[in-house]
Every structure is written in C-alpha cells, then in structure tokens.
Amino acid sequence: MTKKRPLEIILCAPRGFCAGVDRAIQIVELALEKYGAPVYVRHEIVHNKYVVDGLREKGAVFVEELDEIPETDAPVIFSAHGVPKSVPANAQERKMFYLDATCPLVSKVHVEAQRHHDEGKEIVLIGHAGHPEVIGTMGQLPDGAITLIETVADAEKYEPKSPDDLAFVTQTTLSVDDTAAIVAALQKRFPTISAPHKEDICYATTNRQEAVKQVAPHVDAMVVVGAPNSSNSMRLVEVAERAGCPKSGLIQRASDIVWSDFDGVEKLGISAGASAPEELVNEIIDRFAEHYDLTVSTEVTAEENIAFNVPRELRA
C-alpha cells in the first residue's frame, strides 16, 4: 500500500454559519414543524444549495416571486437577504401569512437608508448590482432615491444632485478593504457625507475575512467552502489571494475537489462562507483524509456568541 503524503490543514475560525443564516434556516424549520408542509420561501433562504435542497426535502417550496404562489394559508417566508418594500405590501394585499427571515443586520441598513431619506439626504449604496440584498435595500425607497456604487471608479465619477447632503450605506457582505477604498474616495470628494452609525459590513463578514487574512500567507492553498452566488464566500476567495496565498478557490462539495490542483501543496487553509454548514467542511476534510496523511489545527482570530430571535409566531 502506498504511503499517503502528509498534508497540514489549518482551519480558519470563525467560519461558516453566522447568526443571521442560523436564524433564517431555523425560521423555515420551525414553520414546517408548526404549520406542516408546504411552507413557501421567496428566493433561496440562504445562498447554499445543500441547505436549500435539505429544506426542500422537508417540504419547503422555493419561488423567486410571490406570483408563483397559489392562493394559500401556508406560511410564506422572505429570505435572509431582505426584500423590497413592495414584497410585504403585495403579501398583505393577497392576505398571505408571511414571516420575514431578513437578517437583523440587513434590516439595520434598511432603517438607516429610510432615516437618511426622511432627512432629505441623497443616498449612495455601496454593493454589487443584482445581488438580492442590494435589490432589497434599494427597494426600501422610491426609484432613484438610492444610487448604487460598485467600485472606486464609480465613486470618482459619481455626480450627486446635492453634494452637501449625502449619506452612504453598504451591503453587509462586501470586502472590508475594497469598501474602505470606495468610502475613502467618496469622503475625499464629499467630506460631509454621512456614514453609518455603526459599520454596515456585518461582524460575520469582517471576522471571516480577518481569519482568512491571518492564515492565507502561511499556506500553499486556501479552500473556501461555499456557493458561487454567495457574496461573502466569493469575497473570502479574493481576500486569501490578496493576502498572498498562491492558490485560492471555492468548493461547494467534496465531489468538486480537483486533486491535481493540490499537487505540491503541503499546507492547506480551509474556511467557509456564512451560509455554508459545518458538515460540508467536515465532508471535505474527510475526503482529503482519504488521499493524505492529515494533521488538522485551528487558527482562532475571534470568538462569536451572537444569536438572533426568531419571529414571535414561532417561539415556543
């Protein structure tokens, strides 16, 4: 029997599920327990196929828009990413029983945007076009009230109607460093621009990026467990590359591992996006253990103990 080559795995901590994702999944599971199937969910509850497939097997029905849902008494759940104001308004019109699984840290951004708008400020949202969180935040206010800025170049060519009456908010899952550069460009041009009271990029995004930043320079490759439509997972891949890791990539499941990518790798870092469950991390480690003689350690850069309550209707 050929001797397995040694491989050292360094696990980044924190990694994986955040409080908002945990709460959103709990809302679907508790609704299924309390009301039975079907439970309708508008958009993927969190951006992870394994999680969505698991909930679908339990009786969750995923739709992109409410008009795909027949007349029903069954609960309708809005995803963790948040929704435009038109969505609950439409649900109320149709007398739907809906539960909002929007992450409280996304709701905080919605409240901030509304407050700035009420104060007559012009609002800039730093984020990625087309991401459901961005669609939800922009949909809190009338069309045209929020301008989306994605890059430093956008910030440099942005022409507000009232430069002295500006405010910015951000998507919660952005690269901390990229966002800082965009904010700096805006503040240089518009010194009086109002910033969020407390950072909009959430604690989980920040902590996972910081953990990857610490590990990346000391490993030959970094694997991020997550989905390609998960903004925070994609940012972790970029953070690892920028922190000096020679190879960094996204893996959804153990079956996606391309073994030739790990030729010559002696030290491997592993992290997971905020919507990736720990069982997928374990599945990937187990698969590496079949091919290598593993030693596994964990690098802890922060402790997390945040939890969010589920809606009143679901509390025991």
UniProtKB/TrEMBL annotation:
Dimethylallyl diphosphate binds at H47, H81, H131, S230, S231, N232, S275. Isopentenyl diphosphate binds at H47, H81, H131, S230, S231, N232, S275. Its EC number is 1.17.7.4. The keyword Metal-binding applies. [4Fe-4S] cluster binds at C18, C103, C202. InterPro entries: LytB/IspH. Its cofactor is [4Fe-4S] cluster. Binds 1 [4Fe-4S] cluster per subunit. It is an enzyme of class 1 (oxidoreductase). GO terms for biological process: dimethylallyl diphosphate biosynthetic process; isopentenyl diphosphate biosynthetic process, methylerythritol 4-phosphate pathway; terpenoid biosynthetic process. Pfam families: LYTB (PF02401). Pathway: Isoprenoid biosynthesis; isopentenyl diphosphate biosynthesis via DXP pathway; isopentenyl diphosphate from 1-deoxy-D-xylulose 5-phosphate: step 6/6; Isoprenoid biosynthesis; dimethylallyl diphosphate biosynthesis; dimethylallyl diphosphate from (2E)-4-hydroxy-3-methylbutenyl diphosphate: step 1/1. The active site is at E133. It catalyses: dimethylallyl diphosphate + 2 oxidized [2Fe-2S]-[ferredoxin] + H2O = (2E)-4-hydroxy-3-methylbut-2-enyl diphosphate + 2 reduced [2Fe-2S]-[ferredoxin] + 2 H(+); isopentenyl diphosphate + 2 oxidized [2Fe-2S]-[ferredoxin] + H2O = (2E)-4-hydroxy-3-methylbut-2-enyl diphosphate + 2 reduced [2Fe-2S]-[ferredoxin] + 2 H(+). GO terms for molecular function: 4 iron, 4 sulfur cluster binding; 4-hydroxy-3-methylbut-2-enyl diphosphate reductase activity; metal ion binding. Keywords: 4Fe-4S, Iron, Iron-sulfur, Isoprene biosynthesis, Metal-binding, Oxidoreductase. Belongs to the IspH family. PANTHER family: 4-HYDROXY-3-METHYLBUT-2-ENYL DIPHOSPHATE REDUCTASE (PTHR30426). This is 4-hydroxy-3-methylbut-2-enyl diphosphate reductase. It comes from Maritalea myrionectae.
